[in-house]
Amino acid sequence: MTDPGEVRASDAEREAVVELLREASVEGRLTLAELTDRTEAAYTATTHSELTLLTQDLPAAPAAPAQVRPREGKKRRWFVGIMGDTKRRGTWRIDQELGAVAVMGDVLLDLREAEVRTDLVEIMAVSVMGDVKIIVPDGVNVDLDGVAIMGDKRVDVQEAAPGTSAPVIRVHAYAVMGDVKVLGDSRAKPLKRRWSAWREHWRELHGDDWNERRHLDRGY
Question: Are 32 and 116 in contact (CB under 8 A)?
């Protein structure tokens, strides 16, 4: 008799796990990097036991429907660097739209360890003879629009495979003789990841091959 945990996972079961992970993120249970890692692992899982590893430290189902914080007009949390530097990294909470303004200065927003309480991360980035740098986990989807005049706006992120429900980062960039950059893990100082229980078990199942395949697929 086949072990129930070794039954092959279906596409619908993978999508169900991804939705549970998204709800856990909105509830503040996962950081953006954790959500991205587990989402990618869910899409590459082949058995029920592998999917179970990704959610074993999460509630089986949310106590109530995940509450996505409603957007309140154009209210934003602002980070401003005028002839100086402003940096936000480490553990912090994102529960509203963000704004970054660099005027002859630099603004750095590192989203990898942030708890994202909204359905997407939306950022207004303005650079005037300055530099706005936004660091995200590789594997998210980045939507960058806006205008650059004698400046540069660009994305250098290894994005998720087409058709997957990866986290979305939307950036509206306006650069005048300045730069707005969205960089992934592979283009920034690596984030020191904790070996959580699911990672330990995943490593036991797949060894180091999974990380090696991820790097090859992303072109590192």
Answer: yes
Task: Read off the tokens for 25.
Answer: 């993120």
Gap between the Cα atoms of 122 and 98, Å rounded: 6
Evaluated on CA atoms 73, 109, 87, 82, the torsion sign reads negative
Report residue 105: phi and psi, to 5°.
Answer: -155, -170
Plot region of 216 (φ>0 → left; ψ -120 to 50 → alpha; else → beta): alpha
Using one digit for the tens of pLDDT, what is the confidence trace for 144-196? 999 999 999 999 999 888 888 899 999 999 999 999 999 998 888 877 766 56
Rg (CA), the chain: 19
* Helix H or strand E segment including 142: strand 141-149
Q: Which amino acid is at 136?
A: V
Distance CA 85, CA 87 (A): 7
Sign of CA dihedral 188, 192, 195, 198: negative
Instruction: For residue 49, give the 3-state DSSP assignment.
Output: helix
Q: Are 184 and 157 in contact (CB under 8 A)?
A: yes
